[in-house]
Design a protein that fits this description.
Elements lengths: L1 H20 L3 E6 L1 H4 L2 H16 L3 E6 L2 H10 L6 E2 L2 E2 L3 H25 L4 E3 L1 E2 L2 E2 L1 E11 L5 E15 L1 H8 L4 E4 L2 E3 L5 E4 L1 H12 L3 E6 L17 E3 H10 L6 H13 L4 E6 L5 H7 L6 E4 L2
Parallel strand pairs: 1-2, 1-13, 2-10, 5-10, 9-12, 13-15, 14-16
Antiparallel strand pairs: 3-4, 6-7, 8-9, 11-12, 15-16
Helix pairs in contact: 4-5, 7-9
């Protein structure tokens, strides 16, 4: 009886959040490294189906970097990166599109349907709902002067077909978005998944954006999980970067959080996707389990 009462308390705690977020889009960015673990994939997508079942409108934006690198090596191609961006020639682009749009995206849709959810891909028949243009990188030359580097078919999102996305999720269908952009000529581009998620969240007017990572969130002392910061103001982020509190793979995530907040998204979250049901705990409990970044 006591255990049942505890479960009831959890549901009551979640009630106000369910009422607040019902009918509102929530963007969830799911990294490729987390998706390599079938147990984590199942856990996260079960949470996503739960969100949809209680009226939230989830949009899942996923990556696939480790899977792409593995397939490239099998094909005799050497992955190359410049400032964290994968150099994408024509051969690499073909692999990227196949792995992201067909294999990973298809697996996400199948898992959602296995939990009795409805799912649809944002990439179908060679058409993407992410509009992009070619991205050029600016790097210093030997004299420290800026020069532009061509890294192939790498793009940046310039617009999102928000109207169609909102129409898809209106009836509770979960939208699965691979980070593939397309320009007016039909050319496809490999897009950074973090920035793609931020662009989607901004375009659809998301209530919040949640980044699932392999760390608990932002920690005052990066090597000490007990120093997790539950709430961080956007204005504090740059100071944390300068102090080295935020570094490495966390940098693009906090940059994407800031971009989404600047575009009107109410809250951005960074949580550990390896923690069972971390998505539900972060969204539907008072304390949460990760770091929420607020405007201001």
């Amino acid at each position: 009886m006591e255990e049942a009462a505890k479960k009831a308390d959890v549901l009551i705690e979640a009630l106000s959040y369910i009422q607040q977020f019902a009918g509102r889009p929530v963007v969830i960015k799911f990294g490729g490294s987390a998706m390599e673990n079938p147990a984590i994939l199942d856990d996260v997508l079960e949470d996503v189906v739960f969100l949809a079942a209680v009226g939230v409108r989830p949009i899942v934006v996923h990556g696939g970097g480790p899977q792409i690198s593995a397939v490239m090596k099998e094909a005799g191609l050497t992955p190359k990166f410049v400032q964290g961006h994968r150099v994408t020639d024509a051969d690499t682009l073909g692999l990227v599109v196949r792995i992201l749009a067909e294999e990973i995206n298809g697996e996400i849709v199948r898992h959602i349907e296995a939990y009795a959810g409805r799912a649809q891909s944002s990439f179908a028949n060679g058409r993407s709902l992410l509009h992009a243009r070619k991205k050029m990188l600016t790097v210093p030359d030997r004299d420290g002067l800026p020069q532009q580097i061509d890294i192939g078919y790498v793009g940046e999102v310039v617009a999102v077909d928000a109207e169609q996305m909102l129409a898809i999720i209106a009836d509770g269908t979960i939208l699965a978005v691979p980070p593939i952009g397309q320009d007016e000529s039909g050319q496809l581009y490999n897009v950074n998944a973090d920035t793609a998620a931020a662009a989607v969240a901004a375009a659809v007017g998301a209530e919040k954006i949640v980044f699932l990572s392999n760390v608990h969130g932002i920690m005052a002392h990066p090597d000490d999980p007990d120093s997790l910061l539950s709430t961080v103001k956007e204005g504090e982020v740059q100071s944390f970067v300068e102090q080295g509190i935020i570094s490495g793979g966390m940098l693009p995530k906090v940059a994407a959080c800031a971009s989404a907040l600047d575009a009107g998204v109410r809250k951005a979250h960074i949580i550990d996707g390896r923690l069972p049901h971390s998505l539900l705990l972060e969204i539907f409990t008072d304390k949460g389990v990760g770091t929420q970044i607020l405007k201001g």
